[in-house]
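FAQ

Q: What does a record look like?
A: Structure on top, sequence underneath. For example:
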């Protein structure tokens, strides 16, 4: 009855709201749609918001939200979650543009929200300046036990697409290779947030644009193994690792395979366990800094 289908928004605690607003507006190219109670809301193009910056004494991720459809009311979904041993709070008007949401903690204590509807942004479409990604593509978080997290999100209807060994699990709720992944680690917090670009040309133009605006790459670009996305990474002004990617695998859930691509080595390409060495940089390029 519950169909979670989209990573809708990610909220960050920020210490220097102005610096982070400038990054999301002028570098990323998202549109500021609202600002109230110490939070700034940004839209990639259509939704009221996809990124929330919340003023704080700390930096880092504070919550993330997924949109869903369901047969019944939000109270029915709350009851459904309860039947899965997930205690959720029903929130009224939790954010501008969102009238109702269910909020709960996942096994690692991350705050997750499920919402059925979000208003459209008043002003829509892509900005003229900045990177202007298609969307917030996926979120990678550090957890104490990736296996446990994968099992939890499977209960919510997510599908486990790939593993890197036994410490990095990939999950999707739509046709993207992953919208979430979990990295077993002794520390907590976000590993990276990934923004989807349109093409490799868009990525190359973006790297020139970033360089001219003082944003330096940390890793990449190269094509990953799991997901096959061409990816590169940089830090935002508060040290959050941001991935820019394009050309990720498309999952055909009904067949349990990824849509074939010339750079695949398995035909059909099915969800599998990758070794770290074969997975990170398929182009064979070595980078100074390790990703995991
Ligand atoms: Fe990623």
């Amino acid at each position: 009855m519950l169909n979670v289908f989209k990573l809708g928004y990610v909220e960050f605690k920020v210490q220097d709201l102005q610096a982070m607003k400038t990054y999301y507006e002028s570098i990323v190219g998202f549109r500021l749609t609202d600002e109230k109670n110490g939070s700034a809301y940004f839209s990639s193009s259509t939704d009221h918001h996809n990124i929330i910056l919340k003023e704080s004494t700390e930096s880092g991720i504070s919550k993330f939200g997924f949109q869903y459809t369901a047969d019944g009311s939000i109270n029915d979904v709350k009851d459904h979650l309860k039947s899965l041993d997930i205690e959720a709070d029903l929130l009224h008007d939790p954010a501008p543009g969102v009238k109702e949401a269910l909020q709960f903690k996942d096994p690692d204590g991350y705050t997750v929200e499920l919402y059925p509807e979000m208003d459209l942004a008043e002003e829509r479409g892509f900005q003229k300046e900045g990177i202007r990604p298609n969307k917030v593509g996926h979120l990678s978080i550090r957890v104490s036990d990736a296996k446990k997290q994968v099992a939890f999100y499977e209960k919510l209807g997510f599908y486990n697409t790939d593993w890197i060994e036994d410490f990095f699990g990939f999950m999707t709720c739509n046709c993207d290779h992953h919208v979430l992944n979990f990295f077993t680690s002794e520390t907590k917090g976000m590993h990276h947030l990934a923004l989807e670009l349109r093409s490799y040309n868009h990525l190359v133009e973006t790297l020139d644009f970033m360089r001219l605006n003082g944003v330096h790459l940390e890793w990449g670009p190269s094509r990953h193994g799991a997901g096959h996305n061409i990816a590169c990474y940089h830090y935002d002004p508060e040290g959050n690792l941001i991935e820019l990617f394009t050309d990720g695998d498309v999952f055909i859930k009904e067949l349990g395979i990824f849509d074939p691509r010339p750079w695949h080595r398995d035909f059909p390409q099915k969800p599998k366990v990758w070794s770290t060495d074969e997975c990170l940089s398929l182009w064979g390029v070595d980078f100074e800094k390790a990703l995991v």
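Q: Is there anything notable about this one?
A: Residues 138, 140, 192, 194, 243 surround fe (ii) ion (CB under 6 Å).
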